[in-house]
Specification:
The protein is an all-beta fold. The chain has strands at about 5-10, 15-20, 25-30, 40-45, 50-60, 60-65.
Length: about 80
């Protein structure tokens, strides 16, 4: 199940994304444009906050990132 979020790039620009997979260590998302590999970003998730991350791969409109701080996922 995809979740809407916002990806905030280092230049402050914001991009609407859909999170398609997430774990405590990272995430996969879809967006309208190719994300720059190595970019330091914040993944802004409604009701949960901003999570510092780095884009580690990008292929077309899919991208994956690594959280820069441990993330606790909600259970249940």
């Amino acid at each position: 199940m995809a979740h809407d979020a916002t990806l905030v790039l280092s230049d402050g620009s914001e991009h609407s994304v859909k999170i398609t997979d997430v774990s405590a260590g990272g995430f996969r998302l879809q967006t309208d444009e190719t994300m720059p590999i190595g970019e330091h970003v914040y993944l802004r998730v409604p009701h949960y906050g901003d999570f510092p991350a780095q884009i580690r791969w990008a292929l077309g409109t899919d991208a994956g990132g690594l959280f820069l701080q441990p993330v606790e996922l909600p259970t249940g």
